[in-house]
Amino acid sequence: MIYTVRVASKNQTDPKGQDLLAEIKRTLKITSINKIRTAKVYRLEGIKRKDVKKFAEKVLYEKIDQKIAYNKPVIKGANQTIEVAYKPGVMNPEVGSLLKAAKDLGIKLTAVDSSWEYAFFGKIRRDEAKNLITKLRLYNPLIEHIVDQKPKTLLISGKVGETKMVPIKNMSDGQLLELSGDKLFLNLEEMKVIQNYFKKINREPTDCEIETLAQTWSEHSGHKTFKAKIMINGEEKEPLIVRIKKEALKHKKNIVSAFVDNAGVMDFYDGWAINGKGETHNSPSAIEPYGGAMTGSGGVFRDIVATGQGAKTVISTDIFCLANWNMNLKKLPEGSLPPAYILSRVVAAVRDYGNRMGIPTNNGSFHFNDDFRAKPTVLVGAYGILPKKYAKKGEPQKGDIVVSIGGRVGRDGIHGATFSSGEMTQRTITVNAQAVQIGNAIEEKRTFDAIMEARDNDCIRAIQDSGGGGLSSAIGEMGSQIGVLVQLKNERLKYQGLSPWEIWISESQERMILAIPKNKIIKFKKICHKYNVEVSVLGMFDGSKKLKVFFGRQKVCDLQMQFLHQGLPQRVMKAKKVSQSALQENKNPPIPRTKGKWVEILQKVLTDGNICSKELILRMYDHTVQGTSVLQPFTGVSYDGPNDAAVIRPILNKPYGMVVSHGLNPILNRIDPYWGSIWAATEAIANYVAVGGVYQDASLVNNYIWPFPDEESLGSLDRSVDAVVDFMKILKIPVISGKDSLSSTYRSDDGLVLKIPPVLCISVFGKIPNVIKTVSSDFKKAGSTIVLVGRQDSSSMGGSVYFAKNNLLGESVPKVDLKILPKVLDAINHGISEGKILSCHDVSEGGIITSIFEMSVGAKLGAKIKIENRHKRVDYFLFNETAGCFMAEVADKTTARKLFGGTPYEILGETVPEQILTVANLFSVDVEKLKTLWKEPLEGIFK
Amino acid sequence: MERTLGGNIQMKPNVCILRADGINCDWELHYAFEKFGAVPEFVHINQLRDKSKRLKEFQILALPGGFSYGDDIASGKVLAVELISFLKDELQKFIAKKGLVLGICNGFQTLIRTGLLPFNNLGRMDATLAPNESGRFECRWVKIKTEDSKCLFLSGSDQALDLAVNHGEGKFFANDTNLKKIENQNLVVFRYVNEDGKPTQQYPQNPNSSLNAIAGVTDPTGRILGLMPHPEKFVDNTQHPNWRRFKGQILKPHGALIFENMIRFAKSS
Q1: Which residues on B lie below 8 Å from A652 (Cβ)?
Q2: Which of A65, A101, A632 lies closest to B78 in CB terms?
């Protein structure tokens, strides 16, 4: 029997209900509803009648401000009540806590679930209410459902499926391709290699073996494009990854480990090292942004922890490329979610996952362009710290034990297979669309806590995140040199009824795979037990050089590691040469002629989605947890001046700093992949240097999010990689980690093809010896001199916000002067470390006028500048977006000359006590007024 | 060194930094206690449950911030249930033998839900920390003032303290009777104040719309302190967002006050 307990607030107000009602009135223009109240619903199964009340009173409700009802509505007099619950089999993170609380109280409880209920007051039919919930996206049908019928049981049952043989030995080419289809994603050549292998060993493969090969050889794990031989207009070029690695390994000074582990590692101080990684989660985020962004965070945090013998994650960054939230929804392709919804849900995911993990979200950015409407780009970066002696990738030894710890395995994330809700009465499992998961941050947090203690007790030989491909990828990779024997029956399951191949490739979240030396296994288990972390002993690294997997006594996989990891043939891919953008603009907007026009265009620029204040969002992200932040995202008198990068002190009793920044611009890459990529890398390093980062002690992380590599897209990818290689050469610093996701192409059934703008995100992380030598962007005092440092390519306005506001794209991307760049960076760095630069801000979207505005905001001051006559287009001068230029505040002109004499620089004017921004002879405008407008745009979504 | 409750004047007080699944402000709290002269130690709640660690080895019990057990059901709820179920006697003994208790953010939520705050009624809730009126998680810097209260180690001051808040459920709430009782018994230790240093109901200076601007309370013994803002995140100058603006001025990190006084009191009592 299931008992239902409902809990609601006693207060007069119900913020959740009120927000919803306001939304209904605003968006749907429905006025017949007077009030909406919300309630929490708990269903308890396998509990004694007398215990229900005890459990409810001790755990589920607090009479001080809540009311309760047993097996009946708690909100009385509602016209309609709609309950939204997770679908059976989708992990509800709250269930674990409910079961724990019952256990702690000595109450027997077999199964439990929780959900939300919306009670509508006013004239409304049930189908109308359901319709409202659907239209407002209060639930996502992929993972949730509206409960129409009380469930008969919460338990999930099922029968174990059998391991099937796949008869491929005698298949024709057509049959092979059909088998590959859109499940294995292998091409004919690769399928034939598999066929020949099994012909040679003279047997048919099992479903497990086919799946293992498909996972290991997938683009996701195998990076086939980056490893491919590239033919450009018939000329052969080295594989992309080879070019990146070759150049990177020339700059070894700080490298501890690059391109071999889950994250790149560089040297820090006092025997410590730091690591970094960025990863995308675009496809899941497109269909279920909340779960997608959450599991994206969870995955990259695990990559940081699964480096060497274990690291602690200390910073998280979130970078989102989305369509404009106020885009005309008619432009939305079939099956795509409204951008405002995606924006609010990805932000909620970062808030709910990052905050719970206790990892500060210190840096990030938003990039709005309607061409992301079919698929957003969701890029999460994470950075960690670990003792150098534990920083090298671990290699399992013969006799080491394979364990899996953390979450249990369910059907989540298995391609093509999932639960259909049917009705909650049925609880059956059928094949359905792809499941999206909800992350459980606390599972991951305690797992990390246990790993830290296990590492410090020398219990860990090697560690791997169980992510894409699940056990098959993680264990297959760990055992690639030595061989491994696995018993799947030992794995902990969320519910019974999984087939062996499902256990083997399930991507259920919050799991880590470790190699534990035999003599440490008891100690290791004890540590896990202390942290409430479950352990499965899955097998042993056995020296067989084979991947042997059993389910009970049945052998379900027996593959040569050699074949699995080296059998994949190198691809040869054709690409088209991509031309460069123009040297200067051909189409030019008119120069604003009046003061009014100037202010109007400035306001337009500052309220653009790419430039407007993101403070509302950042206030929901915890950026002070761990106590490490020494340059917070917003500083200044009212804490609202935005900064360029994050600086933390990862070891609290030391002055050492870790600096993290990034740069990208999808629009520039579209016009010119080479100079667009140079721009991204320069912007990243400029952000880094603007706060006091020393670029010589920095490492780069590159993330490519590119359309499917047809000849044209591969051509532009090739140019982008060349740009990254050139950038490393110029600055003499390496890329030490990277990832590619080459699926930013959207195809609909009716033949519509949308290439999503190609994104190269360069992230920078590194070390400084003392955080005292850093600056924030807010002006420090009135009467200081404002200097522009760096060389503007002011005739190139392509892709700028200023052009966009004039309805132009532009054909010339700003070209960074790479010869001068290192000198500029050195000058800024010198000025900061000498304490002569009082505040600094890099110049990027919105140009120098935007930088000066933002510096004034933080200071509650104003600025007065004058533009030299030699600048023919004053509007270009003010709004040009050449990366690698800086606005610096220094005491006086003499200081400016001394600091910047060896580089291109221009003294623009000075800071003033009044909050007025003046450009001599052009306009003058109230900073407070601009600030209000600059803060407004996101209020519609987040306030 | 013998570690007995009370200790002598020279002895550094031992601090039990309580850990449980989802606690995440434990390192910075450890650092703060260490910096101001105590001997902190991480203790997982399972170690107290299996008695491999005992509260009587410590003079201070500190509950850090975080999301214990995900803050499922209500913030700090599951940890409160666990404390009451397994450590009720030990907690009562600890307080009776003059131990001090500090709960910050999630630790405060837990203390409220155990009933230790505000009236030292283990197992009975007389106040709550409800969801912020803004409906959002709030990560921002606020000002609070210390009042003259029952708290044995803090006295009232005109100095407004800048501290960070990071929470979604921090609205201090009690019914009229209890609220009066809390005020009459001088249990309010901290209130959110505005720029003029006056207690405020204004958002965001009062980030969660706490009744009577209450940011922290003590119990009638004055030995238990709970607050929503995070003093442990401002024990070094560089932890303040605007430390660069204060250059040249002598600035004592505002969180120091709480730790210094607590540790001094623990040493002397």
Answers
A1: 27-28, 31, 236
A2: A101
Cα(A611)–Cα(A805) distance, integer angstroms? 12
Spatial neighbors of A200 by CB under 8 A, at least 6 apart, are: none
Calculate the CA dihedral of residues A530, A532, A537, A540 and round it to 10 degrees.
Answer: -60
- pLDDT tens, A822-877? 999 999 999 999 999 999 999 999 999 999 999 999 999 999 999 999 999 999 99
Candidates A697, A716, A698; CA nearest to A706 is A716
| One-letter-per-residue 3-state SS of chain B | CCCCCCCCCCCCCEEEEEECCCECCHHHHHHHHHHCCCEEEEEEHHHHHCCCCCHHHCCEEEECCECHHHHCCCCCHHHHHHHHHHHHHHHHHHHHCCCEEEEECHHHHHHHHHCCCCCCCCCCCCCEEEECCCCCCEEEEEEEEECCCCCCCCCCCCCEEEEEEEECEEEEECCHHHHHHHHHCCCEEEEEECCCCCECCCCCCCCCCCHHHEEEEECCCCCEEEECCEHHHCCCHHHCCCCCCCCCCCCCCCCHHHHHHHHHHHHHC
Indicate the domain borders of chain B: 14-126+138-268
Structure tokens at A254: 């700080």
Question: In sequence order, what are the beta bridge partners of A275?
Answer: A265, A384
Q: How far is CA A657 from CA A332, A648, A690, A698, A837, in A?
A: 44, 6, 15, 12, 19
B245:A637 CB<8 A: yes
DSSP A615-647: HHHHTTS--SGGG-EEE-SEESTTS-EE-SSEE
Is residue A645 within 8 Å of residue A689, measured between CB atoms? no
- State the fold for domain B14-126+138-268: Rossmann fold (3.40.50)
User: Which residue out of B25, B109, B242, B254 would a mutagenesis test of the A interface target, given it has the greatest number of A Cβ atoms within 10 Å?
Assistant: B242
* CB atoms near residue A835 (< 10 Å): 11
As a whole number, the mean pLDDT across chain A is 92
Delineate the domains of chain A, giving CATH numbers in brackets: 2-146 (3.30.1280.10), 173-223 (no CATH)
Residues 750-789 of A with CB under 8 A from B: 771-772, 774-776, 778, 780
- Taking the model in full, what pTM does it have? 0.95
Task: Evaluate the CA torsion angle A713, A715, A716, A717 in order and state its sign.
Answer: positive
Q: Do the bridges between strand A401-406 and strand A312-322 make them parallel or antiparallel, or are there none, so unpaired?
A: unpaired
Q: What is the DSSP string of A859-911?
A: HT-EEEE---TT-S-HHHHHH---TT-EEEEESSHHHHHHHHTTS-EEEEEEE
Cα separation, A419 vs A411, in Å, equals 8
Element (DSSP H or E) covering residue A776: none
Q: pLDDT tens digit string along B159-186?
A: 999 999 999 999 999 999 999 999 999 9
Give how far A940 is from chain B: nearest CA, Å. Answer: 15
The pLDDT value given to residue A18: 84
Nearest Cα to Cα of residue A591 among A383, A790, A797, A291: A797
| pLDDT for the residue numbered A90 | 79
- Helical packing angle, A240-248 and A711-731, nearest 10°: 0
What single-letter amino acid sits at A239? Answer: P
Residue type, A85: A
- Whether the link from the prior residue into B253 is cis, omega within 30° of 0, is no
* pLDDT over 70 at A422, yes or no: no
